[in-house]
């Protein structure tokens, strides 16, 4: 079996790893073993945080909607229940944006939903 020299392949792999860790601090940008470990950790954090980001934004939207709802003399829970009963299908992202940037429109949505939920419960 012929001898395989891996100098080029190994060097390419090293260069690729070190290129990806450019901008990291201390030895993690220049030492091959530390750079490889840092990349593995960074990948794991990135994977995890792509999912955490969705949770964080939903929590933020809930806070914004609750603030808007309390400005209109109701709570987040009551508002969401009345929206569901009233058949108003707006997601939390849109509601949060309306509560923050268009308070008049949000006020009308709250009035409509609370009015329609009271009618349906009677």
From TrEMBL:
* GO terms under cellular component: ribonucleoprotein complex; ribosome
Alphabetized Pfam families for the sequence: Ribosomal_L20
GO terms assigned for molecular function:
rRNA binding; structural constituent of ribosome
Ligase is among the record's keywords: no
Tell me where on the tree of life, at the top rank, the source sits.
Bacteria
Give me the segments passing through the membrane. Answer: none
UniProt entry keywords in alphabetical sequence: Ribonucleoprotein, Ribosomal protein, RNA-binding, rRNA-binding
One of its GO biological process terms is: translation
Family classification = Belongs to the bacterial ribosomal protein bL20 family.
HAMAP family for this protein: Ribosomal_bL20
Q: What does this protein do?
A: Binds directly to 23S ribosomal RNA and is necessary for the in vitro assembly process of the 50S ribosomal subunit. It is not involved in the protein synthesizing functions of that subunit.
Name listed for the protein in its UniProt record: Large ribosomal subunit protein bL20
- The organism of origin for this protein: Candidatus Colwellbacteria bacterium RBG_13_48_8
Q: Which gene encodes it?
A: rplT
């Amino acid at each position: 079996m012929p001898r395989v020299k891996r100098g080029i392949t190994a060097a390419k792999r090293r260069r690729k790893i070190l290129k990806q860790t450019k901008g990291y601090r201390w030895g993690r940008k220049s030492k091959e073993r530390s750079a490889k470990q840092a990349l593995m950790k960074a990948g794991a954090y990135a994977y995890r945080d792509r999912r955490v980001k969705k949770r964080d934004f939903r929590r933020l939207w809930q806070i914004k909607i609750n603030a808007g709802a309390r400005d209109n003399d109701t709570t987040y829970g009551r508002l969401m229940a009345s929206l569901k009963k009233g058949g108003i299908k707006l997601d939390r992202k849109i509601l949060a944006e309306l509560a923050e940037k268009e308070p008049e429109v949000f006020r009308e949505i709250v009035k409509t939903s609370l009015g329609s939920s009271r009618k349906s419960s009677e």
